[in-house]
Design goal:
Length: about 250
């Protein structure tokens, strides 16, 4: 269903399996060829449902390149369904450049957002950055840390609970919270956060950080637990600090 070509799979030194969900042949075909020349294994789907089915098929998927304007369900819905099941990296590729579209994509769990037309070398750089960060954050650091407001983060299982109830976070949201929790009360600069949670050579808009902070505050049920240090960055309220709402 929705499969416009057989799997473009072959052995690769990079061992990076790309799922491309793009309905426009004029964009998809040269993109597939270019990625394969770079050593990636690429599988393409032309519909949103086809992309979801391919992701669920059991074939290895290391990163998803996702168009928004698909002929059946849109890319936002694909992103939502995939993210509810897996932390696999997702890069949105779209002609929609408005801030609201970027914010929505990032809120749904996309790791990056590129507006068409884009340069192929920049795409490769972003793929490398996202997959590198995904591999780096796969290793746990410390078992469990108690945070302010009855929030517990478990780096071994990558689970977060608030007053005993599990909170569903995207991979980036977890990595961001984990970084802030590594030194509660200390201010982490925006530059440090982007470098540690995204990549040292992050190309995307810095607005993505604010989107993820806002989402974390909402999911944790406490808008004051992460404090904005104006002009500098963000800090997680220490367990020793009093709750300003109490």
């Amino acid at each position: 269903m929705g499969r416009v070509s057989g799997p473009h799979m072959r052995a690769t030194l990079r061992s990076v399996n790309v799922l491309l969900v793009e309905d426009d042949d004029a964009i998809a075909e040269p993109l597939v060829k270019g990625l394969e020349r770079q050593g990636y294994a690429v599988h393409r789907e032309s519909t949103g449902l086809g992309g979801v089915d391919a992701f669920r098929s059991g074939s290895p998927v290391d990163i998803i390149l996702l168009d928004l304007g698909l002929p059946d369900i849109d890319g936002y819905e694909v992103c939502r369904r995939v993210r509810s099941e897996s932390p696999v990296p997702i890069i949105i590729l779209t002609a929609r450049g408005d801030e609201i579209d970027r914010v929505l994509g990032l809120e749904l769990g996309a790791d990056d957002y590129m507006v068409k037309p884009f340069g192929f070398r920049e795409l490769i750089a972003r793929i490398n950055a996202v997959t590198r960060r995904s591999q780096a954050t796969g290793a746990p650091t410390e078992d469990s840390t108690q945070l302010a407001g009855n929030v517990v983060i478990d780096n071994r299982t990558r689970r977060v609970t608030v007053e005993g109830a599990e909170v569903q976070l995207t991979r980036k949201e977890f990595d961001l919270l984990s970084l802030l929790a590594s030194d509660p009360g200390a201010t982490q600069t925006r530059e440090t956060i982007l470098e540690q949670v995204w990549d040292a050579h992050w190309y995307g808009p810095t607005k993505t950080l604010d989107v993820h902070i806002a989402s974390l505050r909402k999911k944790l049920g406490d808008p004051t637990i992460i404090e904005t240090v104006r002009g500098v960055g963000f800090r997680l309220r220490s367990s020793l600090e009093s709750d300003p709402n109490s």
